[in-house]
Write a structure and sequence with these properties.
Elements (H helix, E strand, L loop, with lengths): L1 H15 L1 E5 L5 E5 H4 L5 E9 L2 E11 H8 L6 E6 L4 E5 H5 L4 E6 L2 E2 L6 E3 L9 E2 L1 E7 L9 E4 H6 L4 E2 L8 E4 L13 E7 L4 E6 L7 E5 L2 E5 L12 E6 L2 E4 L6 H8 L9 E6 L2 E6 H6 L9 E5 L1
């Protein structure tokens, strides 16, 4: 019995100092920090704006996306990175394949602790970086499909009651995320994608990550705050929000549909059209016309898209 407990303890300790890669069928591979540290390293730099100042960092590590492709022969459609404190970021395979990704061991000449190893995407803001990478999950389901129905986020929120200091938050005002859902659906599980004006996409689950979350009204737009996830995952200036097959988009950010088509892999054609209801009559309006004359949808609350 003592030998079994000792083995379990040693296994737990080894896992805590390792990266676990879990495939779609639940099978896991474990790579210890010690083994990963033996991989030849290169030097790379990143530039970020921190506290209003430009910060340049010099790192050493190895190209993690190349290593992953060479060593993990598991088909997947979504890749999710998780830290020891439950911070996570997700990418479709198409997105991840287009990014440069590094696993860093030192920063500005200083060795990072084992639990502080950084997964860095130099092309993305550091809120997409992971400190203390612990788990990688490879999933085989497809990204959310083209929504069946779109509504305008700003118009929809005007129909909801804005709340001053919604618990557990203070010194703010906003709308509870759950209030966007029909009453009959608030106890169900939903897939949620949020996209911000600065190009950050976040994939979450309701209620797991969004229980008690609010859409905060700020001077620069709508932002997400949730007590269920680290504040580093909160998004500022949300312009698109998709819940299963239904979406909300800010009325003055319809041009974001072009970018969303690429990152969500909707496969919209250049001839995509809006289907709207005007005075009880269904009309089709080309996307190019809407972008040139957004006032065409001034009195419209919802629309569909024909790929």
């Amino acid at each position: 019995m003592k030998k079994i407990l000792l083995f379990a303890l040693l296994l737990t300790l080894s896992i805590l100092n390792a990266i676990i890669i879990t495939g779609p069928k639940g099978d896991s591979l474990i790579y210890s920090y010690t083994d990963l540290a033996k991989i030849p390293r290169e030097t790379f730099t990143t530039t970020r704006v921190k506290s209003g100042e430009i910060q340049e960092d010099v790192w050493t590590g190895f190209r993690f996306n190349r290593w992953l492709n060479e060593n993990i022969q598991i088909p997947y459609k979504i890749i999710r990175f998780e830290s020891a404190d439950n911070y996570m970021v997700s990418f479709s395979k198409a997105e991840f394949d287009s990014l440069e990704c590094w696993l860093a061991f030192t920063q500005n000449g200083q060795l990072l602790p084992d639990n502080g190893l950084r997964l860095i995407f130099p092309q993305l803001r550091d809120m997409k970086w992971i400190r203390g990478l612990e788990r990688i999950v490879l999933e085989d389901f497809s990204p959310l499909k083209l929504p069946v129905r779109f509504e305008f986020l700003d118009k929809r929120l005007k129909k909801e009651t804005i709340i001053d200091n919604p618990p557990p938050f203070t010194d703010t005002k906003g709308y509870y995320f759950a209030d966007l859902l029909p009453l009959s659906a608030r106890k169900d599980t939903h897939s949620v994608v949020l996209y911000s004006s600065d190009g950050i996409k976040c994939s979450l689950e309701y209620p797991r990550h969004l229980d008690g979350a609010i859409i905060e009204l700020t001077d620069y737009g709508f932002s997400l705050k949730s007590p269920s996830i680290p504040d580093g995952m909160w998004l500022k200036d949300i312009i698109y929000l998709q819940i299963d097959d239904w979406a909300l988009i800010k009325s003055d950010n319809l041009d974001a549909l072009i970018t969303l088509n690429r990152i969500m892999d909707w496969k919209l054609s250049p001839d995509v059209q809006f289907i709207v209801n005007i005075d009880g009559k269904e009309e089709k309006i080309p996307l190019s016309d809407v972008l040139s004359h957004p006032d065409k949808l001034a009195d419209i609350n919802s629309f569909e898209l024909i790929p």
